[in-house]
Design a protein that fits this description.
This protein has 239 residues and is α/β, with parallel strands linked by helices. Helix content is 35%, strand content 26%. The structure holds adenosine-5'-triphosphate. GO terms for molecular function: ATP binding.
Length: 239
């Protein structure tokens, strides 16, 4: 696994989540480093969103431990985890349609006054929406709305960015632009992306984790994962 420092930013150790008799996530372990991007893929119901829910604190694991910057966040509430530097973009857009692009970003700021305004400018640049800053979110194209969502997740300057299907519903051009954008964003932070679109995962070409029935089936470089016979049988072969 690519590594930019010896201590992982995130360390997930044998985490499980059970809902009654169903084990949605089954003893999954993974690590994330600053400057690293990784993808989580897997068929519907594989446990991807449940794993994200545990990382951001909207659900607690039944078993296992999650360390973020050496702090045990396993049972911390959502807002405490967010304050520590984990930001998530959900699958369904949750921008305020009636507000402008810049006001949507400003609302997500941790700062006030000039510092907030500076951060809004930086993020507008990153997600390439500077030209749309005074446009109402409702008037954005679908792809631009998704980039605004990414911008909102970036506003608090997270160290770990969790993106749930960032290219859902995008055109091919928008998907390409999202891959370019994420590669730039990745520089200072750690990014984990849940994605169904294999052409997008191929573009990101990063460390990839395959979940299947709650278990970690395979992990490694996307090119290796893609060639793996078991992965092809349970997932890629069906694409
Ligand atoms: N709150 C819940 N209560 C009961 N079962 C749940 C709950 N949340 C998820 N599950 C079940 O856990 C399993 C894993 O679901 P999860 O949404 O994590 O999968 P996923 O890989 O994200 O799927 P998709 O790609 O369709 O989003 C599924 O069988 C799902 O029905």
């Amino acid at each position: 696994m690519p590594e930019t420092s010896s201590t992982p930013l995130l360390s997930v150790d044998s985490v499980s989540k059970r809902f009654g008799g169903l084990t949605a996530v089954d003893t999954v372990s993974l690590k994330a480093w600053s400057g690293q991007m990784q993808c989580i893929i897997g068929p519907n119901g594989a446990g991807k969103s449940t794993l994200f829910n545990m990382l951001c604190g909207s659900e607690s694991p039944t078993e296992g431990t999650i360390l973020f910057q050496d702090i045990d966040i396993t049972r911390l509430p959502l807002h405490r985890i967010a304050r520590l530097g984990i930001s998530r973009k959900f699958q369904v857009p949750s921008v305020f349609d009636e507000l402008t692009v810049e006001d949507n970003l400003d609302l997500a700021s941790k700062e006030h006054g000039a510092a907030a305004a500076r951060r809004v400018d930086e993020v507008l640049e990153t997600v390439q929406l500077s030209g749309q800053r005074t446009v109402k979110a409702s008037e954005l194209a679908h792809g631009q709305k998704q980039w605004l969502e990414i911008g909102i997740a970036l506003m608090p300057v997270p160290q770990l960015l969790l993106l749930d299907e960032p290219t859902a519903g995008m055109t091919r051009d928008e998907t390409q632009k999202t891959a370019d954008l994420l590669k730039e964003v990745q520089a200072g932070i750690s990014t984990i992306v849940i994605e169904h679109d294999m052409s997008f995962v191929r573009k990101l070409n990063c460390h990839t984790i395959v979940l299947h029935q709650g278990k970690l089936l395979k992990e490694g470089a996307f090119s290796d994962v893609e060639q793996d016979q078991t992965v092809r049988e349970v997932y890629l072969g069906k694409q």
